[in-house]
Design brief:
763 residues, 17% strand, seven-stranded parallel sheet, alpha/beta, DNA binding, seven-stranded mixed sheet
């Protein structure tokens, strides 16, 4: 093998040499482009100066400046592309590839070796020295074991014989390790990758993608792809690799701005933000559900998932039943039914006001609406009403121009705002010019009316929603909670607040009535941590992104405070709710994040944990520390943090809610200078970090300390998901600390799965 390695190193050196040459060439092109940009820019500045001196030439110069601006933009873009190529080549130089496959096609006498890396690289004569990992042929590297293999290409399925598979770890141009493997992607490389400590940013997994993950990444057929994957199975990693794959696969028809990822929180958004750039791709758009809602409800405060978690614990069974109903598919269908029966008399029209006086009366708006045939859909009638109102607004503007206040303002127009208003226009008469300027003055004042019409403010959607709720016949077992829910909605409205439960149906109702809310630009929507979304929310997102394919990923076991939904059940529900042709469920049961003892412990916490397959990485048993008083627990916790910090850069203390996190913060504040994370935080510092579990969703830490896992704190089944999610955040070390008896969820476990210790403080 040593000889082989020397041979491979020689090839690496040769390839790097060629990459360096290519880089030099690109650098020359870049320098030339840069000089060009500078000269275009200089030109632009000079023209801008002329513009200031010769006021009469303004209009003409303006056009020229626009043209110059375009030139600058193009030159800059050209420069950016070249800069990116240089960066890519620089990265490729450090580690040009990570895999090699030797294949022999049926009619070929000898095999050929193909090398696989993050991006492709061809030499001057066009020979591929490195293949992009996303090229059709590269799928063999991830999928195939030695022997006959198939791979799909745009021209159909191809057959070949896989003779050899080799993996490399190349750092700064040197082969650190190489392995030959018969497996899909062998364990050695994975061991190496997983044994490392956690970074501030998530890394790509391109060199070690596993077969089942590869299925997710390369699926281009499904309209709805649902991935149920146990904690640490690489769902988030797979999403990001999938995005990179899709961008490559549809290079000409898909760009990163047409992909949106719904992420659980802002910490996560930042944590994953480096993966796509490291694969040479731009990041997709990212949104949290809270951000999505707050954009759609301007001026309102929509409850966040976090506010909701904090409340969720104390729900009665009636409230829970009500919540399930409100969040289900049926409730959304009831809304659709309701809008079918809307007419001029039961739509809640409302006046449009200007400066406190009525501008369009609701009765007039209602009459306009009524003038359109009842055979039309409500949304169509609303749209026509809108157009009619805009026409009326234009007439009102015409009349208003003659009013004294406008005439007075006309006299105040100076040269500066004259040009702003008039632009390049030429007028036939002074009268025409005056009217034009007058109209623009009035338009400015009436802008709020225009906006109100545009945004459908002539329908009071909140009253409409109340009327919808009042129209429903609910079953007796939730009727009290239901009345309370309706009252509460009105009360919150006065405070400009909307609960998460109402946000989705409200938006849906608004869209159904006004025909708005759709966003057809997006081609792919990804939702991570899907178990935190209700079916109603998912349905709404499907409605809002109607042209998009959906990839939903999550782990039903990581539901916090909620019963687990069987993934097959969920797929069935979604398939009917989404009304799609090609739906597919992929299940990932192998967990990579944690050492085997941690994964086995976490798996034992949940009922069908035996399905979880731990990756064979050794480490210490999870430790449970029993203390008998708040004072001892505090002292132990401090001691523990100090010890863990000796081995790891970050230690996370995870709690079940914010109140507990604050408690921990007070305990550790003076001795450890910890950071208490909140909803709005975007980055994770080093040292001790404290947060409630819902903020740690999707994240991982070298060392996790679960705070107070006592019987009192985690009394029942309802807490399983929380405990499981806490335990599964740990990569290398897991410690749970308890004051008083430990939760029955833990005491029921096989005692070989953890070590138990009373206070760690020296006596
Ligand atoms: N094929 C792989 N090669 C190398 N590392 C991997 C691979 N798959 C997963 N990992 C690593 O395992 C860890 C967990 O992955 P990831 O966060 O994507 O899992 P997840 O399923 O989204 O987890 P969770 O649901 O618990 O948040 C990460 O550190 C990731 O880099």
């Amino acid at each position: 093998m040593e000889e082989e390695q020397a041979k491979e190193q020689k090839r690496v050196d040769e390839v790097i040499d060629k990459i360096e040459k290519q880089k030099q060439h690109t650098q020359d092109l870049y320098d030339k482009a840069h000089t060009e940009t500078s000269s275009v820019e200089k030109n632009y500045v000079q023209n801008a100066k002329v513009n200031l001196i010769e006021a009469d030439d303004r209009i003409e110069t303006n056009a020229e400046i626009q043209q110059q601006k375009g030139l600058v933009a193009r030159a800059v873009e050209n420069e950016t592309i070249l800069q990116r190529q240089i960066n890519d080549l620089e990265n490729l130089k450090k580690s040009p590839y990570f895999g090699r496959i030797d294949i022999q096609d049926p009619d070929e006498p000898v095999s050929e070796s193909l090398y696989i890396g993050i991006s492709s690289f061809a030499d001057q004569s066009g020979d591929f020295l490195v293949y992009d990992w996303r090229a059709p042929i590269s799928s063999i590297y991830y999928n195939g074991t030695l022997g006959p293999v198939q791979y799909s290409t745009p021209a159909g399925t191809m057959q070949t014989d896989l003779k050899k598979k080799r993996q490399f770890n190349i750092q700064n141009g040197e082969i650190v390790h190489m392995f030959d493997t018969n497996e899909t992607v062998g364990d050695e490389m994975l061991q190496e990758a997983l044994g490392e400590q956690n970074d501030e940013y998530m890394r790509n997994i391109v060199a070690t993608i596993q077969k089942d993950q590869n299925d997710i990444i390369r699926d281009t057929r499904s309209d709805l792809l649902v991935v149920q994957g146990v904690a640490g199975s690489g769902k988030t990693s797979a999403i990001l690799q999938r995005i990179a794959f899709l961008l490559y696969h549809s290079r000409t028809s898909l760009n990163a701005d047409e992909i949106v990822l719904f992420s659980p929180n802002k910490l996560y958004s930042r944590y994953i933000s480096d993966v796509l750039p490291s694969l040479g791709e731009r990041n997709m758009r990212q949104l949290t559900l809270a951000e999505f809602f707050s954009r759609r409800f301007e001026g309102m405060h929509v409850e966040s998932l976090f506010d909701r978690y904090e409340k969720q614990v104390s729900l009665t069974s009636e409230q829970q039943a009500l919540q399930d109903w409100l969040e289900g598919e049926d409730f959304m269908h009831l809304l659709e039914q309701y809008t079918l029966n809307l007419n001029a008399n039961n739509i809640k029209f409302t006046d449009i006001n200007l400066d406190g006086t009525v501008f369009f009366k609701k009765e007039d708006i209602q009459n306009i609406f009524e003038s359109f045939p009842t055979s039309m859909r409500v949304s169509e009638r609303v749209l026509r009403t809108k157009n009619q109102l805009i026409k009326k607004l234009k007439q009102r503007i015409k009349l208003e121009i003659q009013k004294d206040w406008v005439q007075e303002r006309l006299e105040d127009v100076n040269e500066e705002n004259y040009h702003d208003i008039v632009g390049k226009r030429h007028f036939k008469s002074f009268e025409e010019e005056k009217n034009f300027i007058g109209a623009s003055i009035v338009q400015k004042k009436f802008q709020v009316i225009d906006d109100a019409i545009f945004n459908n403010y002539f329908i009071d959607i909140y009253s409409q929603y109340i009327s919808f709720m009042n129209s429903l016949d609910v079953s007796v077992n939730i009727s009290n909670a239901w009345r309370h829910h309706i009252d509460e909605f009105s009360k919150q409205l006065e405070l400009h607040q909307i609960s998460l439960l109402n946000a989705t149906p409200l938006l849906f109702l608004r869209d159904l009535i006004t025909g708005g809310g759709g966003n057809r630009k997006f081609q792919h929507v990804f939702i991570d941590e899907m178990q935190d979304y209700s079916v109603a929310q998912l349905m709404y997102l499907k409605h809002a992104f109607s042209k998009a394919k959906f990839t939903l990923l999550g782990d039903s076991e990581q539901s916090l405070f909620k019963d687990i939904t069987d993934p097959n059940e969920l797929l069935k529900k979604l398939k009917s709710a989404f009304d799609v042709r090609r739906a597919r469920l992929i299940t990932l049961n192998r967990s990579y994040r944690s050492t085997a003892p941690i994964t086995n412990f976490a798996a034992a916490l949940i009922p069908d944990g035996q399905k979880i397959e731990a990756f064979n990485r050794q480490g210490d048993l999870p430790k449970i520390i029993l203390t008998n008083s708040p004072r001892v627990m505090s002292a132990d916790l401090q001691q523990l943090c100090h010890e863990e910090l000796k081995a790891f850069g970050t230690v996370a203390v995870l709690t079940k809610d914010m109140a507990e996190s604050e408690q921990v913060f007070n305990i550790l504040q003076s001795s450890l200078h910890p950071t208490l994370m909140t909803d709005g935080d975007r980055s994770l510092p080093k040292g001790v970090v404290i947060m409630p579990i819902y903020l740690a969703k999707g994240l991982e830490f070298d060392s996790v300390i679960g705070f107070n896992v006592s019987q009192e704190n985690y009394p029942t089944e309802l807490w399983r998901g929380t405990l499981y999610t806490i335990a599964s955040r740990a990569m290398h070390h897991l410690t749970l600390i308890s004051q008083g008896n430990v939760s029955p969820l833990i005491t029921h476990l096989d005692t070989n799965l953890f070590g138990m210790q009373t206070s760690i403080l020296p006596k």
